[in-house]
Specification:
The structure is a homodimer.
Chain A: E1 3-8, H1 16-31, E2 35-40, H2 46-57, H3 63-87, E3 92-95, H4 97-100, E4 102-104, E5 113-116, H5 119-126, E6 130-134, E7 137-139, E8 145-147, H6 152-163, E9 168-173, E10 194-196, H7 197-205, H8 213-222, E11 226-230, E12 238-241, E13 254-258, E14 261-270, H9 275-285, E15 290-299, E16 302-310, H10 314-327, E17 332-336, E18 339-345, H11 355-365, E19 372-376, E20 379-385, H12 389-399
Parallel strand pairs in A: 1-2, 1-9, 2-6, 3-6, 9-11, 10-12
Antiparallel strand pairs in A: 4-5, 7-8, 11-12, 13-18, 14-16, 14-17, 15-16, 18-20, 19-20
Helix pairs in contact in A: 1-3, 2-3, 6-8, 7-8, 9-10, 11-12
């Protein structure tokens, strides 16, 4: 069975005209002889509207009931899309996540997929149906309805593609693909034709909001290629796949920015083993994710520790700060909300030294001060002042030659 | 387990304020020591809005997909009501029809309930939850989502009450109960305190739009009392229950009117056995319901046959008329859309003759001509001109003394 999985996000099905458009796209693929599974998100603002309704009733809805409420959004979409495909003269069947056998754990509002049954898919596809599945949702073994949290519909599509051993998983969205950087900020931003799972994972976690990391991780594990493309035109989009030899020639694939972090610095902390452990244990217990961590020994026996947390978890961090300062016996604490993190990503970095030098040099030339540096095998991140972020992205994009016809950076020594 | 089942219709949950009101009503009953199961319809206009969306896509949606679409309406209601009950500090769990084990046949958009599993109800009630169930829906044995058609939420409530052997099934609506006739037409209309299943069945089928007949039939079969009352005040409402001795003193319980029928007369039909059978077989094959049937022998060997059909099935009837006229060898056909059917209903009729005479006399006094008459054990219906319907209801209501403090009609000879 040659199967293609297609996922259409909320903006691709925001009204009935868009749904009819999706139906035509789906039928085209069916005509080419593929079996087609379609995963759909809720119509446009449906999810927000439902959240508004719940807020009129309570500020703290039980997670179980929130899932019951929100899962209706995708159910409406799948039914309407099935109707639109019927109208074009093709067979289609819609399914909720529960119906089609997407089994999750019981962590309501952020459930993880445990297994997907292939039975109903195979039955419906064999009967020549286009199979339409509600994204973002599943059920527990006790028949409780669950939702998968942010990026859940992408995850549904990728997980189904992996389970059915699909030829590809196509993610349709309102942009043409993955760009070298945010085109709203840097005009020369260019669409990337092919990118590796690892690079995409770094870009995803760094704030390129095309896809969530968890979907890419699953696709990587099963080796299913993902295509990110627009539902509004037929441009070829970006392929996210296994690292290929030709990719390594590209040193830097993209530049990303994240402006949603806050920097906390504890200074004058006694430089003794176990102090950092204590600090991050306090944060972990409150489920606070820490991003960049820097430790700087300044005086004898004393050290400064800086770390960044995400803005939406900062409130919870603040309520902990007093306890942390006391626990680690720090002399003081500063908080800086005026930061941004710019990053360059590329698998080619492994074999092409000089990327860090190019990056720091380009920033220095613009008198942009670097506050913190964090690196991985295929990524270099610099924390800078927030008001310098746009300028930094522009110069880095240029410094690595990402805007030109070729995206190869000049090979410099690291 | 002392269980009360409560059903709230769309107008009772048309916005979040109304939902909070319902939550308070439900909690009151819980506080009195009952286990409570609540059945809810979709919010206000939700169902209509969903139908509009589907019409933008296709004029002939597959029934299966229509059920997938419409069943979301009730799912939104149950989640929001569960949240509102939590907000009041009580435990509540919402369920879709499928989740709670309401199994139906596979007749999408008009499914019949085959069985209801008690397992999840008992589990959830034992854990002290108020159980909230989406009305109007179920699933087939193949996990397909179905809806129950018109009056489906009432049916859900009554069927659950019967399965759980509830103490009562309360149907909350936007009127105070069942009236002796339509209060918008007859000012003196009075709320009935108690009415038998059979009388209510006649009134339901005669156009008193409080409850659908199928729910009453189920309640009658299992002997579960139904209480119809308002969700907006605490008035006691109407009890629909087994016929009690004191009911027989009431000769006529109510007057109903139906204006949605069309009269078809075939005249000069050969008066031979099998002719009527042929006629009504043609209609039955097209799924057309016939209400009143009158056959009048006029000449030797020839007879006139009149029958009424419902307006929404009249179009389909018209396309059959030619074939029917030919099949029954009629000399001609007339169609009258200008008719109304007024009916008086009461179990007391069985033992109190004179009702027909009173009825015909009252109509005659107002010079209202009777076109057709149909009777059952507890009902007399007269087909009259549509523009006389209001007047007819008023005089009949008065003639049977329904407006006074006592609803006993004067006992006359039939």
């Amino acid at each position: 069975m040659k199967i293609i999985v297609k996922k259409f996000g909320g903006s691709s099905v925001k009204n009935t005209d868009r749904i009819k458009n999706v139906a035509r796209r789906v039928v085209e693929t069916k005509r080419k002889g593929y079996h087609v599974v379609v995963v759909v998100s809720a119509l446009g603002d449906t999810t927000d509207d439902l959240i508004t309704l719940s807020k009129e009733i309570t500020s703290s809805p039980p997670d179980r009931e929130m899932d019951m409420l929100l899962s209706t959004g995708e159910q409406v979409s799948v039914a309407l899309l099935a109707m639109a495909i019927h109208e074009l003269g093709y067979k289609a069947m819609s399914f909720t996540g529960a119906q089609v056998g997407i089994v999750t754990d019981s962590a309501h509002t952020r459930a993880r997929i445990k297994s997907i049954s292939t039975k109903r898919f195979i039955e419906a596809l064999r009967q020549d149906n286009i199979v339409i599945v509600a994204g973002f949702q599943g059920k527990t073994e006790d028949q409780e309805i669950t939702t998968l949290g942010r990026g859940g519909s992408d995850l549904t599509a990728v997980a189904i593609a992996c389970t059915l051993k699909a030829a590809a998983c196509e993610i349709y969205t309102d942009v043409d693909g993955v760009y070298t950087t945010d085109p709203r900020i840097v005009k020369e931003a260019r669409k990337i034709q092919k990118i590796s799972y690892d690079e995409m994972l770094e870009l995803a976690s760094l704030g390129a909001q095309v896809m969530q990391g968890r979907s890419i991780e699953v696709a990587k594990k099963y080796g299913i290629p993902i295509v990110v493309r627009s539902s509004l035109n037929k441009n070829p989009g970006t392929i996210i796949c296994k690292e290929a030899k030709d990719m390594e020639e590209v040193v830097v694939s993209g530049v990303a920015v994240a402006k949603n972090e806050v920097k906390v610095t504890l200074f004058g902390v006694p430089d003794k083993p176990g102090i950092a452990a204590k600090l991050f244990k306090d944060l972990a217990e409150k489920n606070i994710n820490v991003d960049v961590i820097i430790q700087n020994k300044t005086k004898t026996n004393r050290t400064d520790i800086s770390f960044t947390v995400y803005q939406d978890e900062f409130k919870r961090t603040q309520s902990l700060i007093k306890k942390i300062v006391k626990d680690v016996k720090a002399k003081g604490v500063t908080i800086d909300e005026n930061i941004a993190k710019v990053s360059v990503v590329g698998v080619g970095m492994r074999s092409h030294p000089g990327v860090a030098a190019t990056m720091f040099g380009a920033l220095a030339k613009q008198k942009i001060n670097i506050d913190m540096i964090a690196t991985s095998e295929i990524k270099i991140s610099c924390v800078i002042k927030k008001d310098k972020a746009t300028k930094a992205m522009q110069v880095l994009h240029r410094a690595f030659g990402l805007g030109g016809k070729s995206s190869k950076a000049k090979k410099k020594k690291k």
